[in-house]
Design a protein that fits this description.
- It is a single chain.
- The protein is mainly α and about 325 residues long.
- About 65% of the residues lie in helices and about 5% in strands.
- Helix 2 packs across helix 13.
- It is flat, with a radius of gyration of 27 Å.
């Protein structure tokens, strides 16, 4: 007598891929509402004219379709005069400040991220060592990062006043918030002071996962402290360091509140985000076009960091595991 065949498992009605999409669909729907709709709405508004006065009635009317006029207004610095003719934006017009704001934003981003990564790496190495009072030092280092940006801006504004602490200590008479390059230095100094602890915290997290056995083996082989740092610490710290640089770069590209409060209306520290806010008061549709341009600028920088410069932390970690 043949034994009875084992009972077959009943297959569910949905394949595995369909189940996966079913589980993630609530999250995708939430992202579509929270992120997708504002982006799509801003893109649609960027192709519309702002409201204007009807010469016949003297009342505000919808502008209608603008085509690419809002984009050429910023990218080519083109404005429309009272006769409806397209001319170069005059000095003082927000459209004439677009490329200057782009340059200032990139300047702040490159300088602050470079300084914060370098100083943060040194702070992380120190905080990663074992010594008495290490916990107190780590808590004290995080204080500048925990202070709200508006408070930080006011604090440094008092320090950079004409009769403030900085001029008294240096024995100078510099208008730190009015002079073009002095104001930029003031913004960079304040931002580095506030955000370096954030970089140090991310880098310290990467240092904590490096095994001590690697350092012990290097010491046995006679490697100096500098050789251990260059050939062990930096390569193994690369994923955490690149992620920290990526996050901080994205944050620096949208810098607004620190220069807006610290230097107020100084055009020499006006970033692209400040230009967007100023344009919103004059025309939201043109500001939407500027927001779209800013979005693509940040996306291009992020893509370059992730793909071109190799800031893919997951891939880097996989390569390190294969090497070991």
């Amino acid at each position: 007598m043949k034994p009875a065949p084992p009972p077959q498992k009943r297959r569910s009605g949905l394949p595995g891929s369909a189940k996966a999409w079913l589980f993630v669909s609530p999250v995708l729907l939430a992202l579509a509402v929270v992120i997708g709709y504002p982006v799509a709405n801003a893109l649609w508004m960027s192709f519309q004219k702002d409201q204007g006065l009807d010469p016949a009635t003297g009342m505000f009317v919808d502008g209608g379709s603008a085509g690419f006029d809002n984009y050429t207004h910023w990218l080519l610095q083109q404005c429309t005069n009272g006769l409806g003719e397209t001319v170069s934006c005059p000095t003082g017009n927000l459209g004439s400040q677009f490329w200057t704001a782009i340059g200032i934003t990139l300047l702040f981003t490159v300088v602050t991220v470079a300084l914060e990564a370098t100083i943060g790496l040194g702070m992380a190495v120190i905080m990663g060592k074992t010594f008495k009072g290490r916990a107190l030092l780590r808590a004290a280092v995080l204080i500048p990062w925990a202070i709200p940006t508006a408070v930080t801006a006011r604090l440094w504004e008092f320090m950079f006043q004409y009769d403030g602490v900085v001029n008294r200590v240096l024995g100078t008479h510099i208008l730190w918030t009015a002079d073009p390059w002095a104001a930029r230095f003031a913004v960079i100094a304040a931002d580095v002071w506030k955000t370096t602890p954030f970089m140090a915290l991310l880098i310290l997290a990467g240092l904590q996962v490096i095994p001590n056995d690697v350092y012990e083996a290097a010491r046995v082989d006679g490697a100096s402290a500098w050789q251990r740092f260059v050939h062990i610490t930096l390569p193994l710290l690369k994923p955490a360091l690149l992620v920290a640089v990526l996050f901080r770069t994205m944050d620096a590209l949208r810098m607004y509140d620190l220069p807006a409060i610290l230097t107020q209306d100084n055009p020499h520290t006006r970033t692209i985000s400040m230009l967007v806010v100023d344009q919103v008061r004059q025309g939201p549709n043109s500001a939407s076009a500027l927001s779209v341009i800013t979005f693509f600028l940040i996306f291009a920088v992020a893509f370059m960091l992730v793909k071109v410069l190799g800031a893919n932390a997951v891939r880097t970690q996989e390569e390190q595991r294969k090497a070991h």
